[in-house]
Amino acid sequence: MPHIEIDGQSIEVVPGTTIMEAAQALGIYIPFFCYHPKLSVAANCRMCLVDVEKAPKPLPACATPVADGMKVATASRKAKMAQQGVLEFLLINHPLDCPVCDQGGECPLQDITMGFANPHSQYAEEKRVVQDPNIGPLIATEMTRCIQCTRCVRFGQEIGGIMELGATGRGEHMAIGTYVAKAVQSELSGNMIDLCPVGALTSKPFRFKARSWELKHTPGLCPHCSTGCNTDVQSLGREVLRVLPRANQAVNEEWICDKGRYAYTGLQAEDRVTRPLLRVDGVWREASWAEALDVALSGLEQVIARHGAERLAGLISAQSGNEELFLFQALLRGMGSPHVDHRLRQQDFRADAAMPVYPALNMALEDLEREPLILLCHAFPRQQQPLTNHRLRKSVLQGGKVIAIDSLRQDFNYPVTQLVAEAGADLALYAALCSHLSGHAGKTGVESLADVASDLLAADNPLILIGSALLHHPQAAAMIAQIESLAGLAGARVGWLAQDANSAGAWLSGCVPHRLPGGHRAQTIGLPADALWDADMRGFILLGTEPGVDAMRGVAALAALQKAEFVLSIAQFAGEAKQYADVILPMAAFAEGAGSFINNEGRLQTFRAAVKTPEEARPAWKILRVLGDGLNLPGFQFNELSEVTATWQREIGEYALDVPPFRTFPVLEPVPVSPHADDGLRRLGDWPLFRGDPLVRRAIPLTQPAVVKMHPDQVRALALQGDFVEISTSGGKVCLPLVADAGIPMGTVWVPMGYAETAILGAAYAACSVSTATPPATATGT
Amino acid sequence: MFVNGVTLQNRGLPDSHRLSVYAGTGGYDALRRVLLDSMAPDQIISEIKKSALRGRGGAGFPTGLKWSFMPKGVTGTKYLLCNADEGEPGTCKDRDIMRYEPHRLIEGMIIGAYAMGARTGYIFIRGEFVEPIHIVEAALEEAYAKGYLGQNILGTDFSFDLYVHRGAGAYICGEETALMEALEGKKGQPRFKPPFPASYGLYGQPTTINNVETFASVPSIIAKSGEWFLNLGKPNNGGTKIFSVTGHVQRPGNYEVPMGTPFKELLEMAGGLRPGRQLKAVIPGGTSTPMVGGEAMMAVAMDYDSIAKSGSALGAGSVIVIDDSVCIVRVVERIARFYMHESCGQCTPCREGMGWLWRVMHRLENGQGREEDLQLLLDVGSRIEGRTICALADGGVAPVVSSVRLFREEYEYHIRHKRCLVDGGAV
Amino acid sequence: MLSEKSLAEIARERAKYPADQARSVLLAALRIAQEEQGYLSDAVMEYIAGLLGIPAIQVYEAATFYSMYDLQPVGRHKLCVCGSVSCFLNGSDAVLQHLSERLGVSPGETTADGLFTLQEVECLGACKDAPMLQVGDHYYENLTQESLDALLAKLRGESDDVR
Fold this sequence. Notes:
heterotrimer, A: 782 residues, alpha/beta, Ubiquitin-like (UB roll), Alpha-Beta Plaits, Rossmann fold, 5 domains, seven-stranded mixed β-sheet, six-stranded mixed β-sheet, 27% helix, C: 163 residues, alpha+beta, Arc Repressor Mutant, subunit A, Glutaredoxin, 2 domains, four-stranded mixed β-sheet, 7 helices, elongated, NADH-quinone oxidoreductase subunit NuoF (chain B), oxidoreductase (chain B), EC 1.6.5.9 (chain B), NADH-quinone oxidoreductase subunit NuoG (chain A), oxidoreductase (chain C)
């Protein structure tokens, strides 16, 4: 192993180590801009030039591999002259507008200038001015500040997986930009802001909001998917102004996705509730907590008194913390209702008994990078769990293989072998793959099924990951059963890609109708969410959810809620609740409360409040405690969150990180498949990246209008004209812009869920028809 | 006009670019000897080493040594590249080799490919050279038709495919790793080394790259021995060399002369200076090499070692002659503009420094000079030199710094009088 | 987007490079597209990106890096006058000025009739034949005022033939 000396300190390092890495191991700082440990070495900024004995010229520490006996001086006269020279060149065309630059105070160029620059520049010529491209609503550009380090370009190519930014032009005209002023599309784009060592790329929503040193930093957790990215929530006074990644190499490394970064902007939504609201004679008014609680408690008591507790149901978001999930089910079950659930997007619950204790990945996120063969079952992690997807991408870049089975061809940012079901024939595709694996396959319509089967059989213990979209399918249970057989035939392990930040916690805490905290079987099994809409429920308690857009059958949900005698909504936002609720209790939103989530790996992570709740809003656990107390239920006497946490922990007990992916399957009754409409189309749909929860739906910078996607041949076959189409199902019809997309199979139409205007269409996979439409004035979506 | 040339020996013959003409003067005999008399690859390399042939593209690296770096027994394709991206101001020799003797280049490459085990080769010709591109492409077709290229060359089990790759306008692609990037369809930005092309070149495979003139020297060396070639020149400076003599001479042109020929003789060959003019300065190796004062130059011999002793370099043999009719500040301003235009932009000192140097030169030339500018040029130059990935920036500094040192009074006159010292060069 | 002929030419160039190195044909594809269409429009660059299966920004990077590509329409004849040192020493400035006067445009501009674009370029590698300029595929060397005027007349004549 090479033995080298840097600034008189000795170190032995593995061959191939660079001077930069060796220096960092010794705690010796060498200034740099273009170097980044997660990116390829560019060696273009030249800031890290050091003096290497016997080398005639100073060498870049980031790119120079050590050689045995090498003697390096990082601060000799030769090194310093080189560093000062480079820094002067970097500054001659930099505007030095630090007082009006958002990067000020957290700027490597500023810091390194303070530490290494010669204070006197000899530059007296005119400075360069560079035009700023508009690259969308998330990233502000000020390209005159750019030092051409190309970190952002390399990020897109190497981490983001789609190259959108490039260095165009030559020489001093080299500038960073997109291809013809396009908004960047990468779901990881915001990380380029963090990587930019100057103020060329800054956060657009944060622009001119605060100076970085004024901000309070609170360690946070991202509430938007099951990866559980660690964040640094930055606030000023009562306002969250920025969310940045907090490095945790085991979870999110040093990245977060744009949803996690920008969803906080939804906190400023106009319909944020900050005081209890009551509907009195059809009119909403603010109320005191005492009055609102009175109305809430008596409303609940009346429902129970008139109709029995079995006519009362509770639905909670799996973005809620463990403590809240636990108290929520305790409240419902304490009142005598068995109907508690968090799975609003599911429509087939026949496999409930077979579900694991919680949807566990059954491995560490980091280990995904080393999987040689992964089969994704109706999973599109690029949209559902962007940083889990990053691990899969790394596995592929290192020679691993990913195969995906889905209802449509997805836009992965790495090579994936995709098996796409014929319209609605998803179950048949799994069955066909099983036949291939067991050697009983006949001829099937889907190419490469045999190849996939032989890949699976050839692999040593491949990994199957079940995605949340599978659970949204009307034949989910039968598909899960097929996957169990498939796993047996292929000798594969199975993991679940859980949907929400605390899906695991929701299952473990008993927020499913058939399981109690800890996964114990419930004495009385309640109805699952989707069944409630047709079950003549008289009372509902909602927490953090908007069934009108969060539920698979949003319109049916709205109808059931409107029909109910009493609805209590504990919510951050009023929104649709004003259509059906009687009481809205304002709860703490993202960054305003404390608690804990369990991520997809089973990792228990805690977060605390970064800002105070606005006005009268209260943490949900406190609201639930008061309600339980007011109903005289036992076990609600808590003063501190830590007491709830302790009780929750006691109730769920020790939970395993590796759980059997399936319990025993019940006999599955077949479900009727809805008949095709005349033109034989089936509506596909799932919740897009930025439509999955009430907060992100309100984040204006992340707003994307709803569009319909169809195969271009399908568009031609139906002779659709113009830019708009009308989609009709048995539920109703909607007019939306049309986008041709060859990834959508023939015989299907893709219409997103999670939009108020598409809810009318009802559940995904239903029959539908499409016709040419003239655009309505409001058809651009919300 | 030129005597005993090696790489341009057929230039005077009609249709010298045709295979028949080349073959009629012994062309492809060396290849036959190598393949049919089974000359071992190592033997070829040792012959090249004996010849003391040095890279004719500018760096002057010993060719035989370079060839010996190519690893043996690697999996995957090894590549052989020819650098025909001739573009340094003053350099116009490769164009003539390609126009007049394309087969000499092709034969040299085939021999090289055989010696190094390369299976595929590309001749990277600058895109502006449309005429040479067509000539080389036609020559390749002839060579394929004759069985000198392709599968089982001359019936042996040696196979080699050779193609032309056209550049698209960037001087930097003459830097060998930038050329590889351009061949891969990227911007021509030089790569950091290590790794070197011999281990990680085109498409990440072992690659050797030589200049047109270097390859064109090979057939004669193989045919007549390394010793013969060495003896044409002088020790460590073997062979003949084409010097492109341009600028203020009466007969600008390519002159292929033995290494070590006195500059004085070369100048005479080129018709000498224009009547009544004095030699002011010479850039002996292309604009990337430092200027030499006229008087000093008259005593220099044209070989690598002698020119190095004079404080400059032989470079690509591009001799730019500057007489006393022109102001040196104007000349250098023009040269500085070239380097600003051609900087690829990746390394900070070059991207920012080339423009800085030109701006100061431009100010000086336009009568806006300041007393401190001369020191500034030297300071900025010293901050650029040796601090970039490739040598372009060093080349851009050389004419500026050398001219400030040699012609300080001319610069100072410019600053004080806001005009040229030379008649006719008024601002 | 591109003619059969151009696509066939791109395919011929493509065959020079290994199967997994489609990007290598990028410079040739841009040249061929420009020869057909006169300049590289955004649409044609995006088309080439699709043809080669590479991100559009990589096409744009290359198109803006190399000096032979025109991203804006140019005149039928682009007169590229070499202004580097050997040509400069032999009167390239006078060549440029002469053309500028004859055509009534400054370097970088196109004549109103769309016939000529005048440009000063860096070294074209014909230093011994200075001063020189390039028009299309051809080099015109050892230029004098007379030979420049003859050249302009010849190019104008060619254009008449086309019409």
